[in-house]
Amino acid sequence: MLGYKTEKYYKPSLQHSIRLSLSLVGGTAFGLANFSLTSLPASAEPQPASQEGSAADLGVMSISLKDAVQFNWGFQAQTQGAGTPNAIGIGAFIPLKVNENSVWFLDAKADVNLPDIGNSSSLINTEVEGTTISTSTRLGYRWLNGDRSWMFGVNAGYDSRPLATGQPDTGIRVSDSRTVFFQQVAAGLEAVSNHWNVNAYALIPVGTTEYRLNSGYLGGALDTYGLDVGYNITPDFRASVGYYYQDGDLNNADGSGVLGRLAYDISNGLTIGTNLSYDSAYETRFSADIKYRFGSNGYGAPSKKKAWEKPTIKALTETVKHRDVRVHDKNDPTCGGGVTTFGNCIPSKATGSCLTTPNYVRQKPNCTPE
Prior knowledge:
single chain, mainly beta, Porin, disordered C terminus
């Protein structure tokens, strides 16, 4: 098989094979032991197992976090995803207190939210219009374990998102489009090693969580609870897969979803990422993001220390993930077969409503044929 010739061979007895194997292993072990004792210089003798391959040998233990953990700032941009907008903005990581093995920090950013691309709604039906400014702030604490092989973290904060709306991507015309305001509180847990990273998060809308977006649609913010597990394929190339559960007051987006991500560090401080998600409400959504940070771990500096590039050290100043207020919409159900316009319920002259009958449009004050 596999291209090898079939030949006759002598098959020794089992007892003979065992004796021969033991003799070879014993002879080899004796020879290696004799060589190590007689041939190696004193400086090359084996080190105690507790020191071999330790973090100290890699230089991680010698790093002063006050040198490695510093203020950094930069820019970020993203394309629309499942309930999240096209956006471009600026952010900063601010160490509040750096200890020997831990750091308190503030991570803040502000984004300009841009209109949805083409005729595709990031909310499900209603397209995002105009430009608004959203904010996100996280207060957190991160620390390293004894040999600095793991970084752990906890964070919490507040996010805001004004939302300007336009026409639906269904081809149905609506009136009375509005700009509304959503906000949420958030919390997260992190764990990062040289190869693995785990991130758990909760996004919880507060205040008014449901608004009328226009004459035909209502919009609501989603509670989102998720867990991502990632692996460093190379020091610069990472992949992760996650599960999330979403729940909203409008009920039509409730359910589970999956999220996959690939991220690559192009150069010092410049990272690009791609995301692919699926759930029953938004279905399949693809998005991309780019981030540039300078001022930390050698970013933007003339030289870098190799030990600072360890994932556990870099993770101390990474920006917190999952910051967007996620919004969805649904057609107004209060009129039965009609739509609501300027506070009045106008019945449709077609079977169903103006929102579900393509050859009818919403015209004040009646639903009339095109």
